[in-house]
Structure formats: C-alpha cells, structure tokens
Amino acid sequence: MTFFQQVELIPEDPILSIPPLFAADRHPNKVNLGVGAYRDAEGHPLVLTSVHKAEHHLPPDVFWGRGVTGELGTYSTQVRKQFVPVLCNHCQEAACEKVCPSGATEIREDGMVLVDYDKCVGCRYCVIACPYQRRTFLSKDIMRKGYYPGQGFSELELIGQRLYPLQEGTAVKCTFCVERIDAGLEKGLKPGTDREATPSCVNECVSKARTFGDLDDPESEISRLIRTRKAIRLHPELGTDPSVYYIQY
User: Which domains, from first to last, does the chain contain?
Assistant: First the structure.
C-alpha cells in the first residue's frame, strides 16, 4: 500500500535564499506530504510547534517543525512577509539515510523515513546531511533539561517520558505520527479521513490548511488539490526527491 499526502497553503511567490525554492514536480506511488502557511484572522503566521511537542512530549528546545520567514517586494509600500513551515521531507533519496553508518535511518515501503533509535549510534551525520535542517540530536543536556529550571521534571513531563520515551544520544525528527497511522490501519481506519489515523498536526490545524490523504486515489481530495493547485516542492534540485508538497493559493 502506498499513501499519503499532506498539503497546506502558501502564497504563490517563492522565498528563501537558495533559488529555485520550488519546482512543479510530483513523485507518485510514495508517501507524499506538503506544507504551507497558517495565518490567524489578522494574517499573522502561526506554527503548530506546540502540537508536535504535545503529541510526542518533546524536551525544551526540540522542535520537529520550523518556520521560515522572508520578505517579498522591492519598495517599502510593496514589501510583504511570506511564511513557510518546514518539516522532515521524507525524501525518497534521503541524504540522512545514505550517510547513516548503522542503518538506523530507513525508508519504509510506503515512503516514510524513520529512525530506529536502538540502532542509532549518535554520530550526527544525518543532522549535518539533512538539507532541510530538520533533525535534532538529543544530547545529555537536552534530555536532562526540564521546562521549569531548578525544579526538576514536572509530573506531566514524567508522564510524557513514559508515554513517548526518547533515547539520549540519538537523532530525532518528524515521524508523521506513524504510530497513529499504523494503529489506525490495523483498525481499518482511513488516514486523512479518520481522526485517529491522521497526523496530529493535521487534526489540530484550526484553519484546515493541512490535508492528508491517498495520492494513489485520483479522486481523493489530496489528488484533486495537487492536480488543480500547482503542487510544488522544496529544492528538488538537490536530488533528495522530497515527498513534502506545497500548493499555491
């Protein structure tokens, strides 16, 4: 089975410092997702970093997603900000997988790129190799740092450590909430349709900018969005074959 595409909305003008940022390109038959901008009622960009932290009980200073902000326009009256959230691109020619000496980073048949923490030796080659800078090494200092300095771990932090144990000395990244997807599939649920089988960031996006679904189904909402809204990817020229897609509005 191959699945899934997550799509969000971004303005049409590309940003970031390394052109070209986008390319109208699509990789079929693999896990595909896409990212875009969240904005509040006044147009200010928002990032769902709190959702990643809450779902996976991440330590302080560890974020699986980041926001990139740039400015467009030449004159002050025309300049506007553009915001693009970036996460693990689940690349099909993943640089992180190629440099991993222990085989800890693997690409599943469905296209998801995951880390086996028991195999990770903490060399941090993947952190350096990732062109999207979306891997974090869990150092001793990070793992022993609580949200309330000088007070030790709170009760909620201890509960989180039991529910989602992270291993010191390993590299972590967005897993696309694979545990939710796998558990949902075992129950016969449909990712992107059934909440229990859908990534938490998609569930919690208040503006519904993120959509998740099956690219192999030409009639799915995600396929329709890609087909009609100019799907684009971040830096495909780097040869990593990223699976994260953005659409323009």
Answer: 5-248 (3.30.70.20)
